Amino acid sequence: MNGLETVEIKAFVPARxxxxxxxxRHVEAMGVASRYSVKAEPPExxxxxLRDFILIDPSGVLWRIGEDxxxx
Length: 72
Known about the structure:
alpha+beta, 4 strands
């Protein structure tokens, strides 16, 4: 299958309390970076309509976690 390209992968995780489930608060509050030896950068609004932050895990995988703000 040549010519195929992944544009976006989304995981939808149900939450009873959406405000409580916002990722960055948990990353900071739980000390995820030091506890799990990951690199974490604070959230940033991107020019293409995304607010996101990244985690780089100990094996070098970059996780980009974000939300669409283009319609905000």
